[in-house]
Each structure stands twice: as C-alpha cells, then as structure tokens.
Amino acid sequence: MSSDLGFTGADGTAARSAAGQGNSTDQPPTIYDVARVAGLSIASVSRVLNGQRNPRQETRERVLRAVAELGFVPDSAARALSARLKEVVGVVVRRPRWTDSTMFADEDENLQFPDMINRGMEIVAQQHGFDLLIRSVDLDEPDAGRRIFALARKSDGLILHDRILSPEELDRLSRQIPVVTLAGLPTATTANVHGDNDAGMRALARHLIFDHGYRTLSYLAGHDGSPDSLSRGHALADEASAAGVTLLTGEEWRGSYQAAGGARAIERLIAAGASLPRAIVCANDQSAIGVLHALAQHGIAVPGEVAVTGFDDMPVARHLRPQLTSVRQSIQDLGATAFETVYSMINRSPAGIDSARGRDIALPTLLIRRESCGCGSRSVSILSEPPAATPDSAHPE
Which part of the chain is CATH 3.40.50.2300? Predict the structure, then answer.
C-alpha cells in the first residue's frame, strides 16, 4: 500500500494526497476538512497542529482522530502560515468626542449602535478562538489612517465601522491585510456588510406617504458623509420625489446620530420660527429620542401634530412614549456577519478570500409600525420590500 500522504497548505492548496485516504473525492484533505470532521474551529485545529496554548486533551484527541481519518499532513508552509496568525481582528469605530453635558449625555454614551454590532462580533470571535482589538477614532481626527495602519500590524484582519479612510488609504490597507467594511462600498480588495437601508427606508417612506397621507417630510441626517445616512436619505428623497411630496433636508436637519443632536436641531428650528413638517424621519433611533423630547418640551403632540420615526429599532424604541416607529435591522447579525467574512478571508478558505472580496452583503430589514407615526398602539412588522399599500402579511409584533 502506498504511504503517499496529503500535503495541504492553510490556503487550501495541496501538493499531493493519498488516493482515497479518508477523503471520498479526488481532492486532497485540507485543514478545513479536519475542522469539519473534528467539529472545531480552524483556530482550534491550528493550535493543536502547531502545539500552541496547551489545548484541552479532548480537543487534541478530536483533532488527531480527524487527522488520522482524513490522512491529513500539513506541510511546512502551512505550519508557518498558521504560526504567524495572531488570532486577533482589529475593529475601528468612528465616534464623536463626548463633550455634551446635557441630559442626553448618558443616552448618547450608552445607546451606541457600534457597541451592539461589536457584541455580535465578540460572540463569533470567541467561537473561533479569536480576540477583538477595538480602537475608536474621532469624527474629525486629522490622521486616523496612521493609527489604523498601526492597528493592522497587530491584527490578522480589520473591520471598519464607517467611512474612515480615503479610497486610496483603504486600497493600500486592504492589499496588506483582509478588510471588511460596515456600511461602506465593496471594492476589488474588500468586502462590505450593511443593513438593507434602501429597502427599509423605502418601506417607511411609502407607509408615511400612502398609508398616512403625509405631504411634508423632513430627513434628520446622521454624520456628514456617513454611508448609512446617505443611502437612507437618498431612498427617502427618491420616494418623496416620485410621490410629489415635499422633503426638507440640509445642515439644519442634521442630528449626527445623537439624542442631543436631534434635540438641538429641533430647538434651533423652533427658535428660528421655522414651520415643522408633518413627519420627521430620523436617520436612527437615538436622534429620534432627542426629537421626541424637544417636541414634548414645546407642547407639540406626537403624532397628532408631527409624526416621528427612527431607524435601527433599538430595544428602547418600544419603551418610549409614544412608542417609536422604526426600521429594524438585526444589529448583532451585522457584527457576526462582518466577523465571519473577515475570518474566511484570513483563513483563505476556498469560499473565503477570493469570493468575499468585492462582495456587498445586505442583511434584511423590517418596518416596525408603532404609535409615533400615527398607527395604533399595537405594533406591527412589515417586510422591507412592500408595495405602496399595506401588505397582507402585516402581523402583530
């Protein structure tokens, strides 16, 4: 019997294999096959094969059984690649400086959308035996790129929360290390993960325009240049234009994703004697909280005089008074999907690095109708691709 064994690199390539040894196909066994048969992560298998971190005896035995069953023997190149893994993914979050000492300081610090995304990453990273190294940069930080490139040297891959780098910087970075963006644009060397902003906002716009008959809307935008804010604003503008509805936008309608920012925008508009629209569409729930507070302070009834909506459907949305109509996206799933994508790129799996780069992964959204838009007290959810009229599939939440 031939003793010719399979030699496989960590990128899934192989030099030679035992014909039929533990592998029913003509393809040589890979480290991914070992992980599948052992029921473990790639990182766990790598630790056993490279003698790292003293893995548990049970883990070691499962890996060795799978190796024997498949006839897998990693070559020196594969071992070198595995040994170089730091088992760390860097995460970069774009945050404003917290200088606000108003009543919204706690809300703006504790109701952070990026933190909920990071929790989704953390859960999946732990399953794969990886750690997260999180770095925040200011919205207007002049040399954020330098700090991000420094983080890259400590990481196997990077996840960028927002549009932080210039296209040239992003291209240079992604040629050095796997990069996944959140709410950006995919490139030839990066992948992008985001909620389906377009479908979610179009569903919300149609509901306000056709179900409630509102003819004047405004868009309270997020950070200047934020991909999420821009895509939601464009979708709303398209629907308003198609329906012949007035849409108010501009710098006076910017809440920058903060409760304090939403409240300040409304306060400034009222102080200037501006007429408020029939419905205020906020770029996120957090800014909607500030809008609701400011309107209540001036005795403006919601939704009787002005309807208010959010985006994200954070847990607090259903506990506000009135309950907040919002577009729900699975926030933790955004983080989990981003990590799985960068993990596949790091490990260079056949379905990973080649197919992931250039991919735009949009997760589904739901329109959640509650009291703040003028609906009844019972909240209902609607798929984010409805026709103009209320769909038959609407059901109590």
Answer: 88-195+332-363, 197-329+365-396
Q: How many H-runs (helices) and E-runs (strands) does the chain carry? A: 14, 17
Q: Which of these, 181, 136, 135, lies nearest to 155 by C-alpha position? A: 135
CATH code 1.10.260.40 for 6-84: yes
- Cβ count near 216 (within 10 Å): 15
Annotation: CATH topology of 88-195+332-363: Rossmann fold (3.40.50)
Q: pTM for the complete prediction?
A: 0.74
Judge whether residue 277 has pLDDT over 70. Answer: yes
| Cβ atoms of 282 and 220 closer than 8 Å | yes
Structure confidence by residue, pLDDT tens digits, 146-162: 889 999 999 999 999 98
Q: Give me the residues paired with residue 194 across strands.
A: 362
Segment 119-134 mean pLDDT: 92
What is the pLDDT, as a whole number, of residue 58? 87
Q: What is d(CA 129, CA 41) in angstroms, rounded to the nearest whole number?
A: 8
Q: Which of 197, 255, 203 is nearest to 230 (CA)?
A: 197
Local confidence band at 88 (pLDDT 50, 70, 90 cut-offs): very high
- Residue 274: what are its φ and ψ, rounded to 5°? -75, 145
Measured in whole angstroms, the distance separating CA 339 from the mean position of its chain's CA atoms is: 10
